[in-house]
Design goal:
methionine biosynthesis, EC 3.5.4.9, 2 domains, 11 strands, globular, six-stranded parallel beta sheet, about 15% strand, Rossmann fold, about 290 residues, binds 5,10-Methenyltetrahydrofolate, three-stranded parallel beta sheet
């Protein structure tokens, strides 16, 4: 059996086109969405992402504000910048690139962002809103995965989903979104016993553990839908958390790395910026960009 390839790159391109159309409509009303990205330090991978985000932000017609701060930036200096962005009406979305240098308090920084501008959906208010089924800003990577899953399967209700990984950025919000769509959700992690057996029960398997080729083909239920969130840099290039070559002989559908979830993450960041802009202006949420 050969799995259907879930083309996240193409899906993300369509999403960006829809976002660009909405931005055009907003501009006709005199509104231009603005996204501020804050990068502290010189991590090369982070620099690549931030550049890519800025480029795509401009491509869909939004304003991009990049703030690059030295690695030695103090907590107080960073909080001062966030305060400034919170009160700047030209800024509709704020993203602080993670991870932050170790001397900075990540939770305090995230929770200093105006929740209405928290396009990452990491602020405790948004986490609580999502967990209780209320209107929230939803983390970009899980939102992108949800869009791919709905597109592939139509209906998630009653399906067994296993989420590998329990991070605040991917695993936990992914589980919340799947639960909201009435899937039966298990969150598994490094301490889970009989992991292969558990995974074999999954109709939907979302791998977000950050270990190259961790998920083996014989962990996958024949015909299952596999979403690979892993972005691992190895000598052979970028690889996911799933042994793609072998897994694609068993799965029903699978995302590649690169070209799967990664492009969806950035497209959903732009979607969230558009949503935040609509909400602050008292306009309805843009169609199909929120869960
Ligand atoms: N506050 C915050 N929000 C984030 O959303 C965030 C972050 N911090 N820190 C870093 C991670 C990582 N991340 C990715 C985004 C796009 C690709 C992406 O587009 N990947 C391409 C390949 C790009 C390449 O070749 O490196 C692909 O998978 O096809 C990957 C990873 C967002 N992150």
């Amino acid at each position: 059996m050969t799995a259907t390839l879930i083309d996240g790159k193409a899906f993300a391109a369509e999403l960006r086109q829809r976002i660009a159309d909405e931005v055009t409509r907003l501009k006709d009303r005199g509104i231009t969405p603005g996204l501020a990205v804050v990068l502290v330090g010189e991590d090369p991978a982070s620099q690549v992402y931030v550049r890519s985000k800025g480029k795509q932000t401009v491509q869909v017609g939004m304003n991009s504000y990049e703030h690059k701060l030295p690695a030695e930036t103090s907590q107080e200096e960073l909080l001062t910048l966030i305060e400034r962005l919170n009160s700047d009406p030209a800024v509709n979305g704020i993203l602080v690139q993670l991870p932050l240098p170790a001397h900075l308090d990540e939770a305090a920084v995230i929770n200093a962002i105006d929740p209405a501008k928290d396009v990452d959906g990491f602020h405790i208010l948004n986490v609580g809103l999502l967990a209780t089924g209320q209107k929230a800003m939803v983390p970009c990577t899980p939102l992108g995965c949800l869009m791919l899953l709905r597109d592939q399967l139509g209906e998630l209700s009653g399906k067994r989903a296993v989420v590998l990984g329990r991070s605040n950025i991917v695993g936990k919000p992914m589980a919340q979104l799947l639960l909201r769509d009435s899937a039966t959700v298990t969150i598994a992690h490094s301490r889970t016993t009989d992991l292969p057996e558990l995974c074999r029960q999954a109709d939907i398997l979302v791998a977000a553990v950050g270990r190259p080729h961790f998920v083996q083909a014989d962990w996958i239920k024949p015909g299952a839908t596999v979403i690979d969130v892993g972005i691992n840099r190895t000598e052979t290039g970028l690889v996911g958390d799933v042994d793609f070559a072998a897994a694609s002989q068993v799965a029903g559908a699978i995302t590649p790395v690169p070209g799967g979830v990664g492009p969806m993450t950035i497209a959903c960041l732009l979607a969230n910026t558009l949503t935040a802009t609509a909400r602050v202006n008292g306009l309805p949420d843009p169609e199909g960009l929120t869960p």
